[in-house]
Amino acid sequence: MAVVLPQLALVDCNNFYVSCERLFRPDLKAVPLVVLSNNDGCVVSRSNEAKALGIRMGQPWFECKDLAEQHGILALSSNYALYADISNRVMRILSEFSPRTEVYSIDECFVDLSGMPDLRAVSYRIRETVLKWTGMPVCVGIGPTKTLAKLANHVAKKHPRSRGVFNYNDLSAAQQTRLLSRIAVDEVWGVGRRLSVRLAEHGIHTVQDLRLAHVPSLRAGFGVVMEKTQRELNGLACIDMQEVEPDKQQIIASRSFGSMVETVDVLKDAVSVFVANACAKLRAQGSHASVIQVFLMTNRFRKDLPQYMPSLVVPLPQPTNDSLVVNRWADYLVERMFRLGYQYKKAGVMLSGISPQGIYQTDWLEPPQAVDTRLMDALDGLNKRYGRGTVKVSTQGAYQQWQMKQENKSPDYTTDWHAMPVV
DNA sequence: TCTCCGATTAGAC
DNA sequence: CTAACGGTCTAATCGGAGA
Questions:
Q1: DSSP assignment of A382-411, as one string?
Q2: For residue A422, what pLDDT is reported?
Q3: Any residues with CB less than 8 A from the CB of A231 and at least 6 apart, and which?
Q4: How many angstroms is C1' of B2 away from CA of A225?
Q5: What was the pLDDT predicted at A237?
Q6: A257-278 burial, b if ≥16 CB within 10 A, otherwise e?
Q7: Residue A194 CB in 7 A reach of strand B
Q8: Which of A3, A279, A392, A416 has most Cβ atoms within 10 angstroms of its Cβ?
């Protein structure tokens, strides 16, 4: 029986957030451009021009201000509603190319092309279709495993001669060795900054070094994950496609504040917004949670100020996804943790112990009370129909002080009629 | 000694 | 004018508590 070589493609959007912004602002095509994280804190997406000027991924924006002024680098606040919408359009197009796809992140998708003839042609068709229908430039990397597909994508991005497509399966064994010997090990999926330093101490510098490393030592020194990565680099698939997105096991809603907060009322207000967001996510996946955690944080970068980072957990007797119930607990926890005299910079809510709604851990002594979901159903319905924030819980967002800084956000081009550019 | 659990670490994007 | 550094998520591993 003929064995079909698996052919996995990783399709990755180029400079995704920046490219999204440029879709509606063609005048920004030649301008060095970056998109900032929430609160306009760090650079999270860079145009090629910005990369060339030395702006690093994740760099705090205030560190770039001088350079930005010198070279006219434009910084936009992030507009996640826009990015999510463009992402959905791209993913829908990709799903036309294969019955098996996995949306890996907002800008990446694995596409199983196994058994298809002429993958080069298919890949170029993917690029052209996505570009024509959405305006989004993408690169395609193909390999027999996810890890190699990712690496192939990296090659496609890095070498203009590839014209955005690279197929690892086209290489001879000798070519594979030559290629992998020229790629630093930290380009491998799953090998970050810390691990690459430790790998170097073991003489492992390139992808080829990792591929050939002594298996028992690697396992002993770096654990199962690294061993899987090594096998994947050798063409043995260890990481399966996840075609259906699993339910979240943990939901976190947190945010840094636009300015320091010192009063308990403002903290409670912020936390009520986080509760509302976290519970909405929980209901959207049809789950309920049995553990609620709330945390407060001062600004860890301000060494001159006293630090306080309390966190409290409550196990609930009965799981819930009701924003009002959760908010009562959250309020109580904030009250318990709050201490006067600190400048709070961040807070958050974490929901865990998550299981599908309707599954209750039965209590022998006390049968669960009937759960009334009508209020939350109505709230979700209204917020869906008339926009997020139409119906709120508690004071939810009444205070301006903690709201995040977004000084240069683009309009919601695709989700708000009023933002539609006038032609 | 074994198991469980929470906290910590590392990674991705 | 000055200060200004993200948010969510998973899996593995570690170390202590309790059985």
A1: HHHHH-TTSS-STTTT--STTSPP-TTBPP
A2: 55
A3: A238
A4: 25
A5: 94
A6: bbebbeebebbbbbbbbbbbbb
A7: yes
A8: A279
Question: What is the rounded distance in angstroms from the CA atom of residue A153 to the CA atom of residue A142?
Answer: 7
Position A412 scores a pLDDT of 83
Which residues, in sequence order, are bridge partners of residue A46? A34
Per DSSP (E only), the strands in A129-192 are 138-143, 165-167
Residue A190 CA distance to nucleotide C9 C1' (Å): 15
Helix axes A215-233, A146-158, angle to 10 degrees: 70
Give dist(CA A159, CA A19) in Å, integer.
Answer: 19
Q: Say whether the CB atom of A14 is under 7 angstroms from strand B.
A: no
- The reported pLDDT for the residue numbered A420 is 60
Q: Which nucleotides of B are covered by protein (CB under 7 A)?
A: 7, 9-13
Instruction: Kindly report each contact of residues A50-57 with a partner whose C-beta sits within 8 Å and lies 24 or more positions away, as own/partner.
Output: A50/A18
Q: Measure the CA–CA gap between A274 and A285, rounded to whole angstroms.
A: 17
Question: Is the predicted pLDDT of residue A368 greater than 60, yes or no?
Answer: no
Which SS3 state, helix, strand or coil, does residue A62 take?
helix
Instruction: Return the sign of the alpha-carbon dihedral for residues A85, A87, A90, A92.
Output: negative
Residue A13 carries which side chain, given as an amino acid letter? C
Do the beta carbons of residue A167 and residue A152 sit within 8 Å? Answer: yes
Nucleotide nearest to A300 (CA to C1'): C5
DSSP for A280-333, written as a single string: HHHHHTTEEEEEEEEEEEE-TT-TTS-----EEEEEEEEEE--HHHHHHHHHHH
Residues lining strand C, beta carbon within 7 angstroms: A 37-39, 41-42, 44, 58, 60, 62, 65, 223-225, 246, 248-256, 277, 281, 299, 301-302, 346, 348, 404
Number of H helices, E strands in chain A: 13, 13
Tell which residue, A153, A211, A202, has the closest CA to residue A177: A211
Sorted by sequence, the CB contacts under 8 Å of residue A257 that are 6+ apart come out as A39, A270, A344, A345, A346, A347, A401, A402, A403, A404
Q: Is the CB of A387 under 7 A from strand B?
A: no
Give the distance, in angstroms, between residue A302 CA and nucleotide C3 C1'.
Answer: 11
Residue A234 structure tokens: 């050798």
